[in-house]
Amino acid sequence: MKSRERILTTLSHKEPDKIAIDLGGMDSTGIHGIAYNRFKKYLGINKGSTKIFDPYQQVAKVEVEVLEKIKGDVIPIIIEPKRWKKSILKDGSDCEIPEKWNEVVKSNGEKVAVDSNGNEIAVMPVEGYYFEPINPPYATATSISNIENNLGPIKNFDWPSFADETYKDLENKARYLYDNTNYALMGNFCAHIFAGGQLLRGFEQFMEDLIINPAIAECIMENLTNSFIERFKKYNSAIGKYVQIINVNDDLGTQEALQISPKMYRKMIKPYHKRLYQFIKKNWNGYLFLHSDGNIYEIIPDLIEIGVDIINPVQYTAKDMDCKRLKKEFGDRLSFWGGGCDTQKVLPFGTCSQVKEEVKKQIDILAPGGGFVFCQVHNIQYDIKPENIMAMYEAVNGY
Question: Closest Cα to residue 193, out of 248, 245, 236?
């Protein structure tokens, strides 16, 4: 099979000729720039450049030469900057970052990102390897009117200011890849509603709002949902006919449990998810992919009900996320995009043989009957050895 056929066969819950593989199909199935540079060197790939398309997570855009080495099947359709500039990663290796992403090193050694008005929007601590969002725009809002009189942050949310491609640029890119490659194409729509509230309001404040000031939380989520629906109309018109998968994002789980109770999810969050996800499914013919970390077991039936076809990253080391149980209970209605290798302990700290055994174990559980796209659990982090990365792909391609 060609890659696109392999992915579509898998997602229709049939077994393909071999396990489909994703590296970099979206911003949580990728690889940190430092690990990417080391992996390219290990593979003997000297051409090209390391473009950090997600400066917050420091995720690199995976080049076709790397996909060919690992036999990857997916290419993302992401909104990118038209111009890039040279930069240096934390380990001193070279990369390129969006021209409009502006970093400043402070006297204490912290690195901050500033917007076009000079406001600090993210910080990389001295010992850190990622940019953490700071200064949420609605942190001091005390009423609905404070938000509704300033909807700019909501209308622009999840559409990065440092990426200035137009819808026409996205359309041209998607059409070219659809017509000239055999890769499956994933549209990175990246719509957060629950996490959007946390980032726009401040994590703790939004969680408090859900209980003691629900009108503000609902105002933010209602306006986010409206904005995403209007954005999707343009997005779908540009690339809908070329992509087979569209991803949305919302981190709902922790290692131990949901961030909020199932009752709170169903009352406060699910109605907005349902309206957005069903609008997407009604107006576009493809597979809806939801990225959510952690233990989301209790609401998986809710997610299926509102239109989710695929879950990622399948964090099987989290409580209640045992893959045998997930496959048995939901494998006929849900595809698992991830769960291929643990990135908390096995991939960073295991031997090559331990990595291969883990991959084989996960394939045995998740691959039968289709509905499994191989990917490690979340991004390959900066400190993971290239030997272990290659062992993972050797296992999935050889087993």
Answer: 248
Dihedral sign of CA atoms 190, 300, 203, 59 in order: negative
3-state secondary structure 27-54: CCCCEEHHHHHHHHHHHCCCCCCCEEEE
Find out whether 4 and 184 touch, Cβ atoms under 8 Å. Answer: yes
Distance CA 318, CA 296 (A): 9
The domains located in the chain, with CATH, are 3-30+67-78+131-398 (3.20.20.210)
Query: Does the N-terminal peptide bond of residue 313 adopt cis geometry, omega within 30 degrees of 0?
Result: yes
Residue 388 forms beta bridges with which residues? none
Q: Cα–Cα distance between 69 and 41 in angstroms, integer?
A: 12
Would you state the pLDDT for residue 190?
Answer: 87
d(C-alpha 95, C-alpha 110), whole Å: 19
Q: What angle do CA 289, 293, 295 make, to 5 degrees?
A: 110
Mean pLDDT by runs of 10 across the 399 residues of the chain is 98 98 98 98 96 97 98 97 96 97 94 93 96 96 96 94 94 98 97 98 98 97 98 98 98 97 98 98 98 98 98 98 98 98 98 98 98 98 98 97
Give dist(CA 223, CA 217) in Å, integer: 10
CA angle 317, 322, 323 (to 5 degrees): 110
DSSP state of 126: T
Residues composing the chain:
399
Q: Which two tokens stand for residue 296?
A: 């989301």
Tokens of 8: 């579509």
